[in-house]
Amino acid sequence: NEGGYEAVSIDAVCRSAQVARGTLYHHFGSKDHLLTHAILHWAEDLGEELRRNPPGGRSVPERLAESFKQVFESIAREPRFFRAAVQALFSSDPGVIRMHARLSAVTADLLDAAVGNAAGIHSAPLCMVLGHVLHSLVVGIASGRVTPEMAMGEITLAARFLLDPLAETRIAEEPVGERRRKGRRTKTKGG
Q1: So what's the pLDDT on residue 179?
Q2: What is the 3-state secondary structure (H, E, C) of the chain?
Q3: Please, what's the b/e burial string for 84-96 (b: 16 or more CB within 10 A of its CB; e: otherwise)?
Q4: 73-86 pLDDT per residue, tens
Q5: Contact of 130 with 64, CB cutoff 8 Å
Q6: Can you tell me the mean pLDDT for 103-108?
Q7: What are phi and psi of 20, to 5 degrees?
Q8: Comparing C-alpha atoms, which of 159, 99, 154 is closest to residue 128?
Q9: pLDDT-derived band at 37, boundaries 50, 70, 90
Q10: Cβ proximity of 144 and 79 under 8 Å
Q11: Are the beta carbons of 121 and 163 closer than 8 angstroms?
């Protein structure tokens, strides 16, 4: 957490964890594998917390925003760690590639917990698309281009579009200042 991807060294990790280098490499083939495991562990812990304390909110988009408020705020609090972890996620390391399926499953569980048992919603395709939006927002926050507030607005807006295709029309009819206040993009389709 001290300096981002370049600052993470296996030697420093071994000293901090008080383990031998060989022991660390027995479990993790590379720095990228270790960082990916760390973000997976973080996501699993967050998922358990969301299951224990389901998000409030009347609608699915509100529950999604509430659920991911913790995600977005965590990333903003530790941007160097998340920047390093996001960089590691793009590695071609075999250990990282194997972890992608687990991370996707954890992300789907997080989204599924937020969607809950909403009547008439097929959560698998919704969670798949929102998982891609979430990934983009995590990259944006970790890189400093997106604030947690903007991310919450984006995930809520994406859920609204997916659940109510006519939402775009209603959003386009809102005054521009109102969309800005709510953290929404000011341009819409055709505008």
Answers
A1: 47
A2: CCCCCCCCCHHHHHHHHCCCHHHHHHHCCCHHHHHHHHHHHHHHHHHHHHHHCCCCCCCHHHHHHHHHHHHHHHHHHCHHHHHHHHHHHCCCCHHHHHHHHHHHHHHHHHHHHHHCCCCCCCHHHHHHHHHHHHHHHHHHHHCCCCCHHHHHHHHHHHHHHHHCCCHHHHHHHCCHHHHHHCCCCCCCCCC
A3: bbbbbbebebebb
A4: 888 888 888 888 88
A5: yes
A6: 85
A7: -75, 150
A8: 159
A9: very high
A10: yes
A11: yes
What Rg value do the Cα atoms of the chain yield, rounded?
Answer: 18
By the 10 Å C-beta count (0-12 exposed, 13-18 middle, 19+ buried), 50 is classed as buried
Written as one letter, the residue type at 184 is R
| Identity of the residue numbered 173 | E
Dig out the tokens for 31 from the structure: 């720095």
